[in-house]
Design brief:
homodimer, 189 residues, alpha+beta, GMP Synthetase, Chain A, domain 3, 2 domains, three-stranded antiparallel sheet, two-stranded antiparallel sheet, 5 helices, OsmC family protein (chains A, B), KH_dom-like_a/b (chains A, B), OsmC/Ohr_hydroprdx_reductase (chains A, B), OsmC/Ohrsf (chains A, B)
């Protein structure tokens, strides 16, 4: 297994670049200040579209290599036309994606080759909240469950520790399990 | 304006169905219990893909009319290959989409015709958190700002109140600004 441990790319992660990036941020911590953005346009009813392209990071304005667009809507049972997932489903995708990306990086750094990582994220929500029918019911998810299947060339306990460390360093898990201040500004002309 | 106030579809929202749905939930509150799900598969490095299709609601297992798939990745400056937005950018899209869908419903219920709703959601994040370089820095967004432009056939103050009410009834805003319990389970074989 020594070649597996020594080559730079593991799990599709360029570990040399990963460690170099961490060293660069150690030397210049302000490079790690990022601002991400989504630009949204209402289309009709509950149907709207976001564009994700520009962001700030490593001291400069930057753009993704492509412009990504995503549509959201409600299904017919929630008085929409099902042109896209609901906004709350995108949150579940974001959580799965964040934990999984972190897990692959951590595995690479620890010399573990992954063969499979799958997850299902489920969120329970009582729409009596957003419908304004029961003031005791919150608007958002009452609870979220993540079920991971992780396979790789390490003992089960080491694979479980990858998931634990990905939780300890997940941006989206932090956003969901802790509080983020949100400011809303409105222009009407 | 009486025709505008009386016809059932306003802003693409079928208000008759919207009110009927609210009445149905009033009569049978358990119909409002939903479970949404995302199924994620790791591809390589920080690149992974979620599938959104099945959910539970109105007492039954249901599916969206289509299967939605979304890819997430990191850009090259974050040691990825930019095959999709970052997970944290999907959170910003979810917030914009949730506030916008709610706003359109609320405007329809209040008899206001919208002509334009746009928003930019910006999230500030210091990656010294997720890189484990500064224990005083959180993993997630330190703050999020939503900038709305709302135009329609109502005074500016009424348009601003639409945004306020959409904040008061947003599932994603609640998830971001308050705490949601998350449980993680791992299978390794």
């Amino acid at each position: 297994m020594s070649t597996a441990l020594n080559d730079s790319t593991r799990n599709g992660v360029d570990t040399a670049t990963l460690f170099a990036t961490i060293d660069a941020v150690k030397a210049a911590p302000e490079a790690a200040r990022f601002q991400f953005r989504a630009h949204n346009e209402w289309l009709s009813g509950t149907h709207n579209r976001s564009t994700i392209h520009d962001y700030f990071g490593v001291g400069d304005e930057r753009t993704h290599e492509r412009t990504f667009t995503f549509e959201a809507d409600h299904p017919a049972v929630l008085v929409g036309r099902d042109n896209g997932p609901t906004p709350v489903e995108y949150v579940l995708h974001a959580l799965a994606a964040c934990l999984t990306a972190g897990l692959a990086n951590i595995a690479a750094a620890r010399g573990i080759r992954l063969s499979e990582v799958r997850s299902t994220v489920s969120g329970d929500i009582d729409l009596n909240g957003i419908l304004g029918l029961d003031p005791a019911v919150r608007n958002g998810y009452q609870g979220i469950t993540v079920r991971f299947t992780v396979k790789g060339d390490a003992p089960a306990e080491d694979l479980r520790r990858l998931v634990e460390q990905s939780q300890a360093r997940s941006a989206v898990l932090d956003v969901i399990t802790n509080q983020v201040p949100v400011t809303v500004e409105v222009t009407t002309a």
